[in-house]
Amino acid sequence: MLNDNKTAECAGASMTIITANNQQPYLLTEDSGAVRWLTLNREKSRNTLSLAMLAAIKAALDEAYQNPQIRVIVLAALGPVFSAGHDLKEMQTSEREVLTRCAEMMMDIVGGDKPVIACVAGIATAGGCQLVSSCDLAVASEDAKFCTPGVNIGGFCTTPLVGIGRKIHRKHAMELALTGDMFSSADAWRFGLINRVVPAEDLRKETENLAQKIASKSSIAIQHGKKAFYQQIDMPIEQAYAYATERMIEGNATADSAEGVAAFFEKRQPIWKDG
After folding, report:
1. Distance from the CA of 101 to the CA of which of 90, 133, 157, 224 falls in 20 to 30 A?
2. Distance set, CA 166 to CA 173, 224, 236 (Å)
């Protein structure tokens, strides 16, 4: 369990080091203005989604959601592996708990009221690929790779496909799962798993630029819009339109909507009230 948070200054930004039982920190947390970077910090264990790592990510997400100064969250990782998914040894002893906690954390991303962007360098496999799919957006380096390799060891990446199958075409999802092959970032972009592919040396800058652009928008509009999108996406189309119509009417009644319209006609930048 998390029991020790330390704050330090790093390159002019506030960085919180989230530790567990005085061990190496599971996450490094850095604020860049209104953007919070959460960096998985278990390079030696390939940033596996152990119970401790899942707890660390969920706690950090919940804290960021509750912080009014934070408007966008970025998930990144240290080392050549973004995340190798679940810890197989832990799965042998605590499979149901691991899968349950993982599902809770993934739903925390989807259900959170702030955008979450995956910044992917290296390899994202199984639950790591699921983590990418659960984020609202994803930017990957040209050398990043993705796979769901359960079939290679006599299993099947069933839970990763819950997130992946909702972000990409079913045939692409099944190709990932049935072959267990490693796919390039170009393939992942073609599938729709990621939004952008950039040179490795530009990954941080490009992700930061995207996050800052989103952070400059109305947070209340994004909060309502993100929730509405995920609510309507699996509805029958007539129900989805009816639901979205009501949400859009509600959204257009906010102070930020009035400010945005006024700023448009007055040809100036809006000053968001976040309400």
Report:
1. 224
2. 9, 20, 15
Alpha-carbon span 146 to 84, nearest angstrom: 10
Phi and psi at 219, nearest 5°, equal: -70, -35
Q: Where are the alpha helices (DSSP H) in the chain?
A: 51-66, 88-111, 127-134, 160-164, 170-179, 185-191, 203-215, 219-232, 237-251, 255-266
pTM above 0.85, yes or no: yes
pLDDT tens for 163-218 read: 999 999 999 999 999 999 999 999 999 999 999 999 999 999 999 999 999 999 99
Q: Which CA distances in Å does 139 have to 34, 69, 162?
A: 19, 23, 20
Tokens of 123: 């390899």
209 φ, ψ (degrees, to nearest 5): -60, -45
Query: Taking a C-beta distance cutoff of 8 angstroms, is the pair 144, 121 a contact?
Result: yes
pLDDT in tens, 212-245: 999 999 999 999 999 999 999 999 999 999 999 9
Distance CA 269, CA 77 (A): 35
Query: For residues 162, 183, 35 and 228, what is the CA-based torsion angle, rounded to 10 degrees?
Result: -30
Pair of tokens at residue 171: 């045939």
Query: Hunting for tokens 């990418």 — which residue is that?
Result: 132
217 C-beta neighbours (distance < 10 Å), count: 17
Using DSSP bridges, classify how beta strands 123-125 and 145-147 pair: parallel, antiparallel or unpaired.
parallel
Q: Which residues contact 83 (CB under 8 A, 6 or more apart)?
A: 40, 46, 47, 48, 49, 77, 124, 125, 127, 128, 131
The DSSP output letter for 176 is H
